[in-house]
Amino acid sequence: MMVRPGIRLMGRMPTSTLLRASTPLPLRHLSTTIPRYEPSNALMPKTVERDEQRGPIVGTTGPGADGPHPSERIEPVATVTHDHGNWTMMNPIYTEPELDCVKVVGREPVTVGDKAAHGMVKMLRRLFDMFSGYIAKDVPASVLKENPNAIAELRKSGELLSDKDWMTRIILLESIAGVPGMVGGTLRHLRSLRLLRRDGGWIHTLLEEAENERMHLLTFLTVAQPGWFTRALVMAGQGVFYPMFFLTYLVAPKLAHRFVGALEEEAVRTYSHCINDVEKGFVPEWTDKPAPQIAIDYWRLKPNASLLDVIKAVRADEATHRFVNHSLADLDQTRDFNPFALAEAPAEIRGTKFGFTRDESAQFAVESQRKLLGQSHGGISPPKEKDEVEGQNSKKVETE
Ligand SMILES: [Fe+2]
Ligand SMILES: [Fe+2]
């Protein structure tokens, strides 16, 4: 489990159950009377009651996290190795095995909404492929031995993409991919303001996703600058996609997260194809191309990292978006806490599984709270299996 850097925890710890007065707390916010925090992100007692009556809520078992702040005791998982300052939001840092474990996996649509989301993504992909002349073909590496001109010929016939074709495709995709997280974060932020409720840790994860996608875009822009036609397409794409996604998220956030999950499945597929082509030598312009400095800083890569390492990190990020959005799509959008507010799921899981079910999210949230709060406070007892875990979230959570 990757624990998020401590400095991030202050604003994102979900409100939880009652803090025990007997617990030895090394605390600066603790008042003489320890307040009771309810398993709901609502503030008004009546709303809390109504939330609880609707059944268990994901992420609400475990010691409370509002009064004491554990950040001082948490070691950051990665240290900044450069002197440019840490100017980005939290983003995952990967080991080599974590980069290589990413798989192309797809979630089988179940509900009508799922089918609509997946159908829409497939249709958009087909249109985009047709428009950009992309053929998802696995060309064997052996063709290079048989024919030294194979690359030029295959590029001409459209069976291989050139470095410029890859770049155009990536820039168009990344310029759109940065929209959903910002829309989701904005709408949940506004909802919190409008309804005078807490958010349960969703906003930061969604904003981090938006920034992560923008960092992909900025990284690739250091490799190549698009011409006016691609820039016009980016503007047109944003003009159409932003309002459509905004309205979808406003009325059907589950559908919107499912749509993003399906979109990210395609992103992992595309980047896997790109990685294969570079590894086989089909994009010779990139074979020995060094990683741009912005990418080395952002993903904490080795100083001699290559562009291929960067593309692998981007693919691992896309797998994370796939996992997070499919998991969020399974949650109760108005009551459940974000199970990834305290800690990321392990990279191997994010890279190989399309998402958590609501039950798995509930279990993961309990484990994260136990691990993190137990570790950070040093003295707070983790919730007891029988009294607290089985009593609430380990109950089968009804899927709504
Ligand atoms: Fe991306
Ligand atoms: Fe993505």
In short:
By secondary structure, this protein is mainly α. The protein has 15 helices and two strands. The radius of gyration is 23 Å and the shape is globular.
Mean pLDDT comes to 81
User: What percentage of the residues does DSSP assign to strands (E)?
Assistant: under 5%
The rounded distance between the terminal residues' Cα atoms is: 27 Å
Biggest pleated sheet:
2 strands, antiparallel
Percent of residues in helical segments?
Answer: 40-55%
Class per helix and strand makeup = mainly alpha
CATH architecture of one domain: Up-down Bundle
Unreliable segments (pLDDT under 50, ≥5 consecutive)? 5-37, 63-74, 377-400
Q: Mind telling me the CATH superfamily name of one domain? A: Alternative oxidase
Tell me the overall shape. globular
Q: Roughly how many Å is the radius of gyration?
A: 23 Å
Q: Which fold name corresponds to the CATH topology of one domain?
A: Ferritin
Give the count of helical stretches: 15
Kindly provide the name of the CATH class of one domain.
Mainly Alpha
* Widest β-sheet, arrangement of strands: 1-2
Order of helices and strands: EHHHHHHHHHHHHEHHH
Q: Number of DSSP strands?
A: 2
Instruction: Give the ligands present.
Output: fe (ii) ion
What report would you give on this structure?
- The protein is an all-alpha fold.
- It has helices at about 45-55, 95-100, 110-130, 145, 150-155, 165-175, 180-195, 200-220, 230-250, 255-280, 295-300, 305-330, 345-350, 360-375, 385-390, and strands spanning about 1-5, 345.
- It has a domain at about 130-375: Alternative oxidase (Ferritin, Up-down Bundle), CATH 1.20.1260.
- It has 15 helices and two strands.
- It has a two-stranded antiparallel ribbon.
- It is found in: Mitochondrion inner membrane.
